[in-house]
Amino acid sequence: MYSIRDRLLWTFCIALLLAGVAATYMTFISARGEVDRFLDTELQQIALSLSAHTDGTLPDVKPSGSDEQHIVIQLLDTVSGQTHLSSGLPSPFPVTDIEGFANIRHEGQTWRIFALKTVHNISIITAQPVDVRVKLAFTSALHILQPLVLLLPFLVVAVWLLVGQGLASLNRTAKIVSTRSSTSLEPLPVKGLPVEVKQLVLALNDLLAKLEQSLEAQKRFASDAAHELRTPLTALKLQVQLAERAKTEESRQKAFGRLHAGIDRATGLVQQLLVIARLDPDAHKKPFVSVKLDEVIGAVADELTVLAQQKNITLETATEAVVVAGMEDALKLLITNLTDNAIRYTQPDGRIRLSVKREQNDAVIEVSDNGPGIAPEERERVFDRFYRALGTKAQGHGLGLAIVKRIVEIHHGSIVIDDGLNGKGTTMRIRLPLLTQ
Prior knowledge:
Elements: H1 4-52, E1 72-77, E2 83-85, E3 100-106, E4 109-117, E5 122-129, H2 130-178, H3 195-245, H4 249-282, E6 289-292, H5 293-309, E7 314-319, E8 323-326, H6 328-345, E9 351-359, E10 362-369, H7 400-410, E11 414-419, E12 426-433
Parallel strand pairs: 7-9
Antiparallel strand pairs: 1-2, 1-5, 3-4, 4-5, 6-8, 9-10, 10-12, 11-12
Helix pairs in contact: 1-2, 3-4, 4-7, 5-6, 6-7
């Protein structure tokens, strides 16, 4: 585990060190250039001054520079070969044709020289070791950088304090979270937080809101499921008691028949409860794939045709090639539930039509019938879990349309209820986004 403060401080120190190295190098290069220009001018001025006082004889030579500069002078009579050297030059420079500035190697070191020949055949060389220039440039650079070096500890301490102050808001938020109970899902305060921390806290608040919604949905589901299961389980218990008390084989068989029917209804209820339980937490974990709705509708129609024929209901399809992104099994369940509902509530010799078409950027699925229909005032409530419209005679648990609505929400669509075929019955109209390439 690492500390943000330590990492920031180390990063700052390393960056400061690299910047210091770069600044030292650049300062040294700049100082070296200034020293070279200054001392080159001095070498040239000494040589010109000597040439002005030379009348064909070799005068005594004394450099005008300070001892720190280590400037030496060589005078050579090119006719007689006589040489005068200043102190600090153990042996004469080799005779060359160089005039002006040059760098030469002599006595194991590099020298910066300025060579000048007078009209009296006197060769004047003023010279200085390059090492001296490097030392002078380095000393000059240190003088320039010394204040910055002295400020370095203060900068490190200042950064340490500033980082600590910046992280204080994170520490306060952590303390608030640590003192909360597992059931406390209120949003964390964001007032006074820096932008970077505020974004994190806002994301946490969004997560807390989703968790609260999920927990509320689970509590509501558990309460509703317990309430709905209580009735069929009580009925099953009564049927068992009746079967046990039956005095004749015929009455016992009737009791067992009612018991089997009750078990089937309870099984159907549990299956639908399991479908909703799977859809709620896992809906956004499953990847979407390309789903051809026309093929799904065709498959549902084939599966439910036998059920429709038992009531002499005509089951029609009107489809065109439409592709959406979604979970194929969930979309098939959606269309199956709507079609099964239509078959349940449509009177014998009725008519049901399944269709899918394109409308702009949407796929429109319609399941229409000419059954009794749904009253306008109940069209919103029928999507609630366990709700059944008044006067409903068909068997059911009030979960089919709740499952349909949840599947539509998962696929970012919408569902509305309208009048059915020829103004009678019901049309369930679902809009889903088309698959984008």
